[in-house]
Design a protein that fits this description.
eight-stranded parallel beta barrel, TIM Barrel, alpha/beta, about 375 residues, about 30% helix
């Protein structure tokens, strides 16, 4: 049972070269679709503020669309360009900072997971490295070099805006089968130019994005990079099969300018490679020496797809892994969606008061 004193390692300060946080908790990025006209409004600001008021160390926003016509799909997904959306985000930053929190936007392009006709910009075509969707179907032409370069630039512009608006860091969404991950993944990247080829070549797009963002934000601003093995349509997919491959992946991204890796797994307690208990974040920290964020089913009994599964399990194992420095930070998704006071309650040893996740939380912005 987790009580106030056993949870202590979660509440040690986090200090790194560019980012210091009061504790080890992070709000995982979660798409909510509650931004009318793709502009985050006062309800969105209050939603994030509530988490900041309740001791979340770092908030990573829901994915927010960079400046490209097909960067997002779906009503209410916030954009990260244009005066209206950016002033909405400025209010979010203000509210979170007033409550003593820190916040990073998650910069997003969905690539080929978009369908033509999706809002906003119904006419915009989905774009991806080879025009293949995640199931390998050819639905469009491969992106031209011009389009690739334009999108790299849009990420850089978004990074510059994030810094200008007072955000504390940026997170680049390179996970789950969206555009950047579509370049990483062999199944969706069959290019033969400099953006395709072997695994290291398929990293070129991400490397250029990180370098371009770094150039805009300068040396001192924290750049977080989120990646995953799993894809939206395939939980068993692998980007890397061995620690050696992971090492190569991390080295290139570190050289490009990543400060913190956010290693997305569905269950934080699952070992990544045979012969070691380390999870993906644990391996990433060991190989790169960089601070890492782990994530996956904290406070939940259920698996990722089973939205009814809920509970208060796993906190002891989590605390041990932080205490043993397997990873530095832990992101909490659904538990924090359900219960804005989740972190504060754990800090105060009030685990009996935690609200168990229910799928109703997905339909409310609270
Ligand atoms: C409603 C919902 C929306 C999500 N949206 C995003 C997103 O925009 N970007 C992202 O990287 N991950 C997204 N995720 C994945 C979460 O960030 C997190 O990795 C996942 O929920 C596992 O953490 P949990 O078990 O603590 O919920 C989303 C998850 C949920 C449940």
């Amino acid at each position: 049972m987790t009580n106030e004193s056993t949870a202590k390692p979660l509440f040690k300060t986090f200090n790194s070269d560019k980012l210091n946080l009061p504790n080890r908790t992070v709000m995982a990025p979660m798409t909510r679709g509650f931004s009318p006209g793709n502009v985050p409004d006062e309800n969105v600001a209050a939603y994030y503020r509530r988490r900041a008021e309740n001791e979340v160390g770092l908030i990573i926003t829901e994915g927010t669309g960079i400046n490209h016509p097909s960067s997002v799909s779906g009503a209410g997904i916030p954009l990260f360009h244009g005066e209206e959306a950016l002033s909405g985000w400025a209010e979010v930053v203000k509210e979170v900072h007033e409550a003593g929190g820190k916040i990073a936007p998650q910069l997003w392009h969905v690539g080929m997971t978009r369908s033509k006709g999706d809002v906003p910009n119904e006419e915009a075509e989905p774009v991806g490295p080879s025009g293949l969707n995640l199931d390998g179907e050819q639905v469009n032409e491969p992106m031209s070099i011009g389009e690739v370069e334009e999108i790299v630039q849009s990420y850089a512009e978004a990074a510059a805006e994030a810094k200008r608006l007072g955000f504390d860091a940026i997170e680049i969404h390179g996970a789950h089968g969206y555009l950047i991950d579509q370049f990483f993944w062999k199944q969706t990247n069959q290019r033969t130019d400099r953006y395709g080829g072997d695994f290291t070549d398929r990293m070129q797009f991400a490397v250029e994005i990180v370098e371009a963002c770094r150039q805009e934000v300068g040396e001192d601003f924290p750049v977080i990079f989120r990646f995953s093995q799993w894809k939206m349509n395939d939980y068993k997919a692998k980007l890397v099969d061995t620690p050696d491959e992971l090492d190569r992946f991390l080295k290139r991204l570190t050289e490009a300018g990543v400060d913190i890796f956010h290693c997305s797994t569905r269950r934080f307690w699952e070992p990544e490679f045979e012969g070691s208990d380390l999870n993906l974040a644990g391996w990433t920290k060991k190989l790169s020496g960089k601070p890492v964020i782990s994530v996956g089913s904290v406070g939940l009994d259920g698996v990722f797809t089973d939205f009814s599964g809920a509970g208060k399990a796993n906190l002891d194992g989590l605390v041990d892994k932080i205490d043993n420095e397997e990873f530095d930070l832990v992101a909490i998704g659904r538990s924090l969606l359900m219960d804005p006071e989740w972190v504060k309650k754990v800090q105060e040893g009030r685990t009996d008061d935690l609200l168990a996740f229910s799928k109703d939380a997905l339909h409310k912005l609270y």
